[in-house]
Amino acid sequence: MAIRIITDSASDLAPSPALTVVPLTVTFGETSYLDGVDLSAHRFYELLVEGDLLPSTSQINPGTWDEAFREATAAGDEVVCITLSSKLSGTYQSACIAAEAYPTVHVVDSLNVTVGEGVLVRRALELAQAGLEADELVDALDAEKRSIRVVALLDTLEYLKRGGRVSGGAALVGTMLSIKPVVAVQDGLVEVIGKARGSKNGHNLLVREIQNGGGIDVSRPLATGFTGLDDRILRKYIQDAGWLWEDLVSEVPVYEVGSTIGTHAGPGAIAVAFFSQE
């Protein structure tokens, strides 16, 4: 029995013959879109910077998961479904509810999101290709997800302010001092772990946090991501921090970070996700 890998669009991965991506719903005002289907990441940031209010992202409901599971199992596939962190969305719980009707569907809580979730999905694809059975694959993912490290540098506090995560006064002072927050995914939650004054110091802090993460295991997937309309800031960072992965990987994968995290990070953020050597 073949294994079908299914994930949600918060992973910021594109669907492929080996991967089914189920979209979350993004709502701007009274207009709703299917993430990655009728709303690209590029268009999402155009709408984000044009408006004053934050959009909302709705979890995937059990019925939508059921459709994906029914299609895969009807084709004779066993399913390993990997969702964004259960601490950030009810999407994992919805997938578990839908999976109760399918003995051959297994649901994994990534405890991550965006490029962090994405590297776990890509690891699942590798392990499935290597011939692991579904139960073995799930056990491996549950063990290995604990070694995923995700750190990101935000360019602005504006969108954290809009979302009520920092006060207006703190955002104003931060903007005046050019404060760049550094965030990480810890125990399934997105946490601010440091602040730097200016882009150069921000890049240095990001590099230091990567080093503190135990070193990059290049035998497993690595990813970088960016928010906004272009990847210029990320490309500069990859060049400046090249010694971190120089002679270890032939190419550093770059992904567009979509609405799930982009809503709160705003444009101009960069992120790195990797499996720690620890």
Topology:
Layout: E1 3-8, E2 19-22, E3 25-28, E4 31-34, H1 41-50, E5 56-58, H2 62-74, E6 78-83, H3 91-99, E7 105-109, H4 114-129, H5 134-144, E8 148-153, H6 158-162, H7 168-176, E9 179-186, E10 189-197, H8 199-212, E11 223-226, H9 232-240, E12 254-256, H10 259-265, E13 270-275
Parallel strand pairs: 1-2, 1-6, 6-7, 11-12
Antiparallel strand pairs: 3-4, 3-5, 8-9, 8-13, 9-10, 11-13
Helix pairs in contact: 2-3, 4-5
How would you describe the overall organization of this protein?
- Keywords: Lipid-binding.
- It holds the Pfam family DegV.
- The structure is a single chain.
- Mean pLDDT is 89; it is low at 164-177.
- The chain is built from 10 helices and 13 strands.
- Strand 11, helix 9 (232-240) and strand 12 (254-256) form a beta-alpha-beta unit.
- The chain has a 6-stranded mixed sheet with strand order 10-9-8-13-11-12, with helices on both faces. Strands 2-1-6-7 form a 4-stranded parallel sheet, with helices on both faces. A 3-stranded antiparallel sheet has the order 4-3-5, with helices on one face.
- The longest helix has 16 residues, at 114-129.
- 45% of the residues are buried.
- The chain starts with a strand and ends with a strand.
- The protein is of the alpha/beta class.
